[in-house]
Amino acid sequence: PVPCCCAECAVKMASGGVSVAALWTEVNRCGQAGDFTRALKSVNKILQECKDDITALRCKVVCLIQNGSFKEALNVIHTHTKVLGSDVIAFEKAYSEYRLNRVENALKTIESATQQTDKLKELYGQVLYRLERYDECLAVYKDLIRNSQDDYEEERKTNLSAVIAAMSSWENAPPEDLGLPETSYELCYNSSCTLIGQGKLTEAMKKLQEAEELCRQSLSEDSDMTEEDIDSELAVIHSQMAYVMQLQGRTEDALQLYNQVIKLKPTDVGLLAVTANNIITINKDQNVFDSKKKVKLTNADGVEHKLARKQLQAIEFNKALLAMYTNQAEQCRKLASDLQTQNPGHPRPVLIQVAQLCREKQHSKAVELLQQFSEQHPESASEIKLTMAQLYLIQGHVTKACDILRTIEDFKHKPGMISALVTMYSHEEHIDSAIDIFSQAIQHYQKQQSGSSVHLSLVREAANFKLKYGRKKEAISDLEQLWKQNRKDIHTLAQLISAYSLVDQEKAKSLSKFLPSPDTMSFNVDVVELENSHGATYIRKKAAKVIGENSPKEQGQEDVKKKKKKKKGKMPKNYDPKVAPDPERWLPMRERSYYRGRKKGKKKEQVGKGTQGAMSGGSAELDASKSASSPPTSPRPGSASTSAASSNIVPPRQQKPAASGATRKKPQQKKKKGKGW
């Protein structure tokens, strides 16, 4: 127990019936038992009698911090600033500010303290890590590990490995090998994060598997831990495994593992936000309804205090892209505009706006936006200009795209850029511009990497290009340079002689002396076998045999093959060889000489008069088509030359249908009994 500092206070407590020693004993006992709520009550009783007791005030602040009441602890510190100086309670004040996410205020409190204790240094390292000042944080933890001897050495090494992993992931800094042992799953996990930052994905996956085994072993020793608790603890490792799978292109496996982590519903909002964001990146423009559900997890309270700045930035970018994929144009523009305000030099917000404009077919406006950004931020101009060139190509402005690409200094002399420019200029038939591209690139590599493989390959491509387009005179210098590098290159020498033959025949003759003799160039090659080989593009036609060489037997066989059997023509079904066919049968009915047109009302006269099914008696007599004077027509099926057949004609309504499957009557269905109307 700590005694009171003043005699007057002791007298007041004694008069109240409770001794100071008894209250301090109660405070000490509750503190050792971890019951800080009862300890706080005893401290408050002490402060009722002596408001300015420094020890009691400090104990009250500690009890409030242990109970998680950080705001009340700060209120007590600010109320008694005269009594509680900056050196007396600096750690408690800085820790309360840190837990309330007032990281900048915590940094000022620590730096203003005159005495830097080990506790303050530990907190200082945590504050620097949250502020992403990794270089200073690394130095603090190195000093702590070097100058401290207690039971927290492993925790400090874990924090040190976390700093190295963050530097590798967010700053692309080469990791420093500090020889940290990977005895715990936390150290093994941080080591895997460092490997991910270096791009060593296979090694990182192995480290994560080791971390998973170590975690299971350490947690299974605790009898109070259930299988669900172990899975919740492994959620961070599994999410990182899924991230590695995603980077390796195994998106299906990654998505399955991400969903398993989401189903566990971990309490870490940062882990949930990162996992949900990565699922959204896999979905892209597919499965947008699932992405809309997952994006809500990235908006949880406290996410901004759990993740690094680049992680939060990536999440906001993906929100804007999701709005674009779901055709929410206004929301996409708003999010992209806010991102550009927060990150004025970052090209991605502008590219998102440009993508949205392109979806709306506003390519010209998109190019203007890119041009404006590239002028304002030349440090990001390379990526922006590549996008501008792509938009010009979409619009069909190939020359403008080439002009833009030639202004990108970072990629100006790269082999890929040279190839693209030469291809586009060739497409536009600007051969001089393409040759100029080759010349500038060759001059650049002549100064920087003379004789390198890149330099010689460019010279070779330039020479071949000039020869292809008939510029043999211009190709001479390139061919000479190549031949000087390799005197045994016969192909280049032959090209050089061919080029010189148009300019200087004497020079061509002198160079032809270096050609090998025909004897040394002869090869035992079977020409027939070569022509018949798979992939041969040219096959020599065999000479035709001389007429008369064939034997009579062969000639007879050829005559048989040439003769073709004539197929008999098909006759109509009603064809009658005794009746001469109508000579006008090939003409349409309207163009025939005997066509009289259709008589109106003919059907009306036949149908509806007389008894049901009977035919009118005079209809057959009045039918001009049946008269003898009508011209002959093609015979109809079933027609007879005798007149007796016409008397046996059965009227249409009295004819019975044939008993076929198509005309067979269906049995009447019985009416269903209803329950009423």
Please give a structural write-up.
The chain is mainly alpha-helical. Helix content is 61%, strand content 0%. The protein contains 34 helices and no strands. It is extended and about 140 Å long. The model is unreliable at 1-16, 616-620, 624-648, 658-666 and 673-677 (pLDDT under 50).
Q: How is the topology of this model organized?
A:
Elements: H1 7-16, H2 20-33, H3 36-49, H4 54-66, H5 70-79, H6 90-99, H7 103-112, H8 118-130, H9 134-147, H10 153-170, H11 185-198, H12 201-220, H13 227-247, H14 251-264, H15 269-283, H16 288-295, H17 309-325, H18 329-342, H19 348-359, H20 363-376, H21 381-395, H22 398-406, H23 415-427, H24 431-448, H25 453-468, H26 472-485, H27 490-503, H28 505-512, H29 518-521, H30 527-531, H31 552-562, H32 602-606, H33 619-622, H34 644-647
Helix pairs in contact: 2-3, 3-4, 4-5, 5-6, 6-7, 6-8, 7-8, 8-9, 9-10, 10-11, 11-12, 12-13, 13-14, 13-15, 14-15, 15-16, 15-17, 17-18, 17-19, 18-19, 19-20, 20-21, 21-22, 22-23, 23-24, 24-25, 25-26, 26-27, 27-28
